[in-house]
Amino acid sequence: METFTDVLLVTANVGSLFDNVSRLLRTIHSYKPQFIALHFQEVGGKDYMVNMGHADNFFRSIESNEEMKDYDRVCIYVDNQFQAEDVFTALGSMYFIHKTLKNIYQYDFNVKDFKAVSGQNKYVGSLAGVTTVEKEKFPKNFWPDFKWSRKGFMRTRWIIHNQGLDLVNVHLFHDASNLTACESSPSIYSANRKNALRYVINRISDSRYTPLPFFLFGDFNFRLDTLSLVQHLSTSADVQTVKKDSSNEVEKIICEEKDNDHQVLLQIEEKLFAYLHQAYFREDNVPSLLKYDKEVAVFHDVIREEDIKFPPSYPYSEEYTKPTQYMNTRCPAWCDRILMSHTAQEFIHRRDDDERGVVYDTLGPNVCMGDHKPVFLFFSLKTNGH
């Protein structure tokens, strides 16, 4: 007999904002999922030594909310041990199971067996010795030229109605400099992320444990193919490259309109990406912008994704009065994604038009959610359960 379980997966980079829990709860309220998975990155924010206590309140405010009272089983994993620099990932994963959902099991990676989930299971710290989660920081030698940072992945493994699934929280490397990102296509940063993602996929598919269908969601830091996009945006412009006095190093790229008083169309510096027509990155232009989103396509042999119909999830203004405005620090991009194995996508139930189907969207499109808009996927998981 086919069984359907309503699932809500959410990924949120909370590096710049901890206080918009209401928007998340509203989404939970409107979809009423039976199984919720929340994957957070940059727990504690950029200044995590100061803010880690604030992060604890954030998790508490979600679990103690009235909206969550019918979720009788909770599993929380928060890696907040920033003192342990060699293993700190700043990842946090929360899982909520509704009382109507029976027979949910979680894998113990130590004894290599599944156990029924019961009660409240909360693990906060370095997570060393917690046997229901597997956490790994990317090895230091992976990228010798880059500042080693809190990037890694965290996996939990579940059985929902007889179907095994891996849920993986991931945070990949960002673009350090907009200028470097423009140098080649694909950029050196894109190549790094490709290596890192391939590493994660290989690790969760290796022979230590039986490979299972997986959902991989987090901040992949995927960027648009910057060089191609800049070439496109500056097709009819005069492009000047300004170099630093002493060296041959590029300091800024300025694209000016040929007429129109030489108005600056686009200016790029290490941490500046200022494009005159910001509306270009909005909703109605998504299809043409997606041509430059190439980092997932490399993995089509193993990875699928629902169609993106929302504008880039990053970098939004952190000012409350400008919730739909992008900051001009980076080229807008779909950093926050929910990816899945081919096998996992087969379990997504495609309903008839009159029913609520699959929803892949940003959370809080019209309110300030920090520099990353959280992204969610709501769907019905179809399994052959009893």
Automatic annotation (TrEMBL):
Its EC number is 3.1.3.56. Belongs to the inositol 1,4,5-trisphosphate 5-phosphatase type I family. One of its GO terms (biological process) is phosphatidylinositol dephosphorylation. This is inositol-polyphosphate 5-phosphatase. It comes from the Eukaryota. InterPro entries: Endo/exonu/phosph_ase_sf, INPP5A, IPPc. Residues 3-386 form the Inositol polyphosphate-related phosphatase domain. It holds the Pfam family Exo_endo_phos2. It is an enzyme of class 3 (hydrolase). GO terms for molecular function: inositol-polyphosphate 5-phosphatase activity.
